[in-house]
Amino acid sequence: MARFSLLHAFTLLSTALLAAGGPPTRCKCLYRQTCWPSQQAFDALQSQLSQPLLHPKPIPFPCYRGGNASNACQDIRDHFTEGLWRADIPGVMQHNNFNAFIFPNNTISKCPLNPTNGETCEQGSVPPIGVDAHSPKDVQEALRFAKQYNLKLVIHNTGHDFLGRSAGRGGFMIWTHRLKDITFHDSFVPLNQPGNAGVEAVTLGAGVQWTEAYTAVHARGKTIVGGISTNGTVGAAGGWILGGGHSALTPTFGFGVDNVLEFKVVAANGKFITVNAQSNPRLFWALRGGGGGTFGVVTSVTYKLHPKVPVSGLFIIANLHEPGTRPTNRDGIRPNSPNAVRQGVGRLRKLLCDLGLVDFLGRAERVSSRGQLLNATAPFDSFFDWYDFIFAQASSQVGVAIEISSRLLSKDTALNRPEEVAKTLLSLPRGVAFNSVAGGAASRIDPASTAFHPAWRRAIAEVAISEPVDPENTPVETVRAAQDRLKASTKLLDTITTDSAAYYNEATLHEVDFRKSFWGPNYPKLKEIKNQYDPTSLFVVARGVGSEEWDAELNCRK
């Protein structure tokens, strides 16, 4: 005990001495700066944790320094595009462009999979050290340490993130991926709400991925509103829900944020708190759509469950390249009719330059009632069976380099300007993902009930576009040109959308006004809550609430 006390005292003294020679207090402390904690300080932190500290490296690291022929390097090459495999590697992003870092002078810190002669593996945006959190206490100790040394904090789970929020050059990481508890409740009543009737629910730890959640919930004979990704690698209790959480089931059961009953959170002050409609109600509002990595570290989320219902699916492939097919297919690529969405028929769709792919999902009796439109359906006993057939075993779509942008398409625009919508979508150079993950039940919920952009309640679909952006394997000029194309396509989408409203989880870093696009009129209230729960800005992420007060690298206050 005496040994720890002396070590702790030395740590505090080192902090005071280093602070004088470090960056200004308006800046976060980064790895290799003089303010960076000493080894003794990290040893003191280690003594308080349940697991050894992590020292993340970019995925291809074993392939360098003559390691190309090693078994480790070959294993990396074999699994490089597998999302579940990548999610289990601390600090690594699913998309390679967010593992690299482009400096203001256009030099790039990177670690490409196939290095050229003499090339070295650099750390890029992968945090150099972190805490492997297995409990809320681990998170509390990590936050205490980050606050004590004014470190740039990174919260990371699976690395599914199109804004790079769970990466951070020179940062200190909290890895929540091992918080895997799944607990079912026959009659869940949120804390401090004893008069409420209990409902069937499930509590998911922050590290649970949707494939794990879907499997467990299906075994109980229930349905949960969740996200869709190849192999189900997206986290079920992290950025997806904090950013709003759209789903193929949204037209039937609402958005993810409409199905949350309670959060458990480690706040910036280090306290482990319960957050629901009665306990910390303002924070409960903010966490439902206000964005991840901003208000605290969520360690678990409790969702309401729904009965298992049979669904029907339809997959259509249409050749849009043959002469005369593009104009005649304009009606066929319209968004879901408002009537279909109102009945709970969701749709996931990819429109390429030459090929249209359509995948419908809806409750079986509602899809079959649409007869002429959907005359070739495949029945499934449950949502899980549909998901398992389409996505769980599909080839992964990660390990690539990509940036995306999105806009919400309103019901009014879909009704009154369908040909203009079709023409605009077909004119996009790289096609578009068209997701009818709004409307129906979601549109009947009070827009003010959550922090999710109110435009979602008027929307019928999300339109997403993308560009390959590969700083690890292409010159920075090529990267900038791709980003410029994405900006131009986003401006084109603005001609058929309103409010420039976008989905925060599927968005671009190059938004002209991210506060308007991601939150609209909700932003001032979100900023107030941010200041209340995180007054020192311990949590700062790209295009997150309050990030406008920081420089482009999120290191120093403006």
What is shown here, in short?
This protein has 558 residues and is of the alpha+beta class. The protein is 28% helix and 19% strand. The chain contains 18 helices and 19 strands.
**Helix content percent band:** 25-40%
Class of secondary structure makeup: alpha+beta
Number of strands: 19
The separation of the N and C termini measures 43 Å
Q: Sketch the major β-sheet.
A: 7 strands, antiparallel
Give me the Rg, rounded.
Answer: 24 Å
Principal-axes geometry comes out as globular
Number of helices: 18
CATH architecture identity of the largest domain: 3-Layer(aba) Sandwich
Low-confidence blocks of residues: 1-24, 327-333, 352-358, 365-375
Spatial strand order of the main sheet: 16-13-15-14-18-19-17
In percent, how much strand structure appears in the residues? 15-25%
Tags for this model:
FAD-bd_PCMH-like_sf; 19 strands; 18 helices; Uridine Diphospho-n-acetylenolpyruvylglucosamine Reductase, domain 2; Uridine Diphospho-n-acetylenolpyruvylglucosamine Reductase, domain 3; Vanillyl-alcohol Oxidase, Chain A, domain 3; five-stranded antiparallel beta sheet; globular; oxidoreductase activity; 558 residues; Oxid_FAD_bind_N; seven-stranded antiparallel beta sheet; alpha+beta
